[in-house]
Structure prediction request, 976 residues.
Amino acid sequence: MSKPDYVEIVEEIFYKTKEKKTEEFKYVGKDVVRWDAISKISGQPVYTADLLRFIKNPVFVYSVRAKYAHARIKGLDVSDALKYPGVLAVLTARDIPGINDVGYVIPDQPLIADRKVRFIGDTVALVVAESLENAREAGELVSVDYEPLKVYLDPLEIIDPETLQEKPHELIHDERGSDILTRYKIRVGDVEKAFKEAAVVVENKYETPFQEHAYIEPEAAIAIPEADGGVTIYAKTQCPFDTRKAVANVLGLPFNMVRVIAPALGGGFGGAEDVGNEIAAKAALAAIRFKRPAVLLHTREESIIGHTKRHRTISWYRHAASRDGTLLGVEAKIILDKGAYASLGPFVAWRAVVHSTGPYKVRNAKVDVVAVYTNKIPGGAFRGFGNPQVTFPVERQMDILAEELGMDPVEFRLKNILRNGDRTVHGQLLDHGVGLEEAIKKAVELSGWYEKRRLYASLKGPVRRGIGIAIFYHGNSIGAEGADYSSVSVIIQRDGSIVFRTGLTDMGQGAIQGLINILAEVLGVPPHYIKVELADTSATPDAGPTVASRSTAMGGNATLVAAYKLRKRLDQLAASLLGCKSPDDVVIEAPKVYCRDDPSHTITWRELVEQAFWKGVPLQEFGYYRAPPAEWDEETGTGAPYFTYTYGAIVSDVEVDLETGLVRVKEATTVYDIGRVVNRTGAELHAIGGYIQGMGYALMEDLYYDSEGRLLNTNLSTYHIPTALDTPEKFNVYFVEAGYYHAPFGAKGLGEPSIVAIAPSIANAVANALRSREANKLVSKHPLTPDYVYSIIKKAGVKP
Amino acid sequence: MVKVSLTVNGVKYDLDVPPTERLLDTLRNRLGISSVKEGCGRGECGSCIVLVNGNPVHSCLTLTSRLDGAEVTTLEGLAPQGKLHAIQVAFIEARGVQCGFCTPGFIMITKALLDRVKEPSEKEIRRWLSSVLCRCGSYPLYFEAVKRAAKYIKEGKIYFDEKEVREKYHLKVLAR
Prediction:
């Protein structure tokens, strides 16, 4: 079978530009000022809630939420709420015309709870009223008759950590017959033999916390009924096509009756996946019913209670190594605290198992990942998606092993890392760019690793310094999770200006800028010719979700394909207009177009476009790209789970106050192999912003529940994220460019990778600062809050 | 209802507001000023910071009914029509803009800082900017923006022609 044309195009451009240095491109890899920068420094972008000022005669929708974390609903009385002034209706599960489910991967999550509630945050009714205040106040009057059930907050009450078997208990998901959502495993080589032969074995238990996205824009949705019975929804969502599917299912409408538009997004980080579907569906229900615009706005508290989190994990890791520092085997059990619903949990658990042995040559592995339901806010997608949760224990283990072996952590890693031509633990041959070794060496150089390691070991007094490294790899895009494709549309207007549309969203990190740079580079037009339209399900064929660090690679490929096809046609036409020897000799440097050997004889880009119009040369193109298929064997955990990987090395330099346990990061060094830097500004912002978010995860962020399952820190004064005062004094940012032949100019993703190894690098630095073998093992969970670090200092007897 | 006479970005408004109405809602819902963002409604995130009589306040914690005679400045009022303020230009040049939701808050707190301290130290910049939360993590680039803005203002370059800024920067390659 011949290759599809889009694969050939991407490969052709990759090999043509393989040796070209990034500096030599015109727009790729440059600091192009993002398309929305001027509107953003003027406060002009329209986020969903800002649309309210254009909406006339709206109704407001408010979610009445469960007061118990686990209970059966015996009855629901809405009569008092209905009598409240301004209330139009109280919608319950019975009012849903389609399917009452918004489960992302499996249908386990009702939009409005009908039979039982599973966490404090489940929606039990929707109040629709003339004002938000009235809706909220009336919500207090909805009376639910609950039969409380036993609340499970600890997954170890449900699963036996020894056998990984489910214990008898009062089921949260009785309809499924089990509260084990999913299991994944790796069975490679002979682990028993490896451990028997090992000179050094290190084992430890690890915990990673929940993490709240805390995007500064709370969720909002505005649904507008259409004349044909359909609905158009503006909503905070990362994935408009997934939102459309969820809304269509809830409303019982065909997809073409539901249009979803994502206005400017004030952050997403994975959090604006499921919740986008929920809020859109709730607003759409009311809009269709009352034939009026329907508005749903979350407060910060509703946002924190009402959207998914990064999964908490508990894991047990055992590593075996030989005396010379060769890794012999890995054994691990990882439990994901799932919370009440599956959300993206099955995919998170899968990404966790794939990455569970780190970027190392591992021949013998036995790993089990189990996702277990509890009565807490569901875990879902969050930048990194299961990988940070396994990279933390793996990278802590590496440091403990290095200490046991008397090796430097860098030397120990260099002995075991994946390089070009190696096979991953899953047996996947890495036949292209593995820039990990270069990344480690660069990070070591930029951070002054060896000097600091020496210097810090001799510091006296109550304030210690420490430096730590962590490395990782991260599979790009969705891999074996499902069909992996993307699309864009490019329309050249008659005046030469260009409209660019994609169903991929920009959560704020500037992914779309990378696509603009690619389009401009290939077409030969300056980026300011291009206008980006809002992500819209009617703008392109399904572009797939905006997740999994796939915008630059997948969206970039689709952009490349569209630009290439347009360029081919225009080159052909220009060659005949200008009399060039061949279309390949046409140079487009808009506004100038000329033949390579005669730059003095030019036509303008606008003239070329006008001629194309009159001659019937199509000025519009859909770009489509589908990723090579991924393979995964469920029984052994082998195959080729992702088509390519981003690699990275992070070095953190910290200060630890032995008298208070307070940790401060002084300097951060991040080196990522992203194949090719397409959008330099965006890449650096990811490196820095991802670090700061990861530092929050490492040092301060966690969710605290009371014994009944009520979340205690539901706002930003109790859920702490890093501020300007926490920001490290210095960042060293560097990119390695080990290209991938199935990606635009070789580019790999950086969205998620930018957070994966931050927490372990900081934890390793803290352990280094404590300079105690016992303390090294005790640094086994995060956040590394002052009280936790202080308890380690006391337990290990670390003295100033 | 309370009668309030209020100047917002140089325009005088005579309003009748409920005694409990927040300045945030007055600005967003009555006056259509949408740079003022609600991120938490509790004075925690700083995205709603505006200047009242030159002082930075959380508009979500300020009652309009208490502001009779006050002068309110939002991002929209930072520069005259057709101009951009040096702080805004500095924020473009520092390349820190990401999702943009917190950006108005950062620009307003920077204005308040530079009105008081002409050449703030790194420590002062961090302390002042810690009033606003940015989850995208642009802080170090925003520190840079404040320093650039301070330099422009010191040189007397306070307002820039918006059209020229657009031509110079919109989707243009920035030199390092």
User: Anything to note?
Assistant: The longest strand of chain A covers residues 327-339. Chain A touches chain B through 64 residues (CB under 8 Å). Chain A has 21 helices and 29 strands.
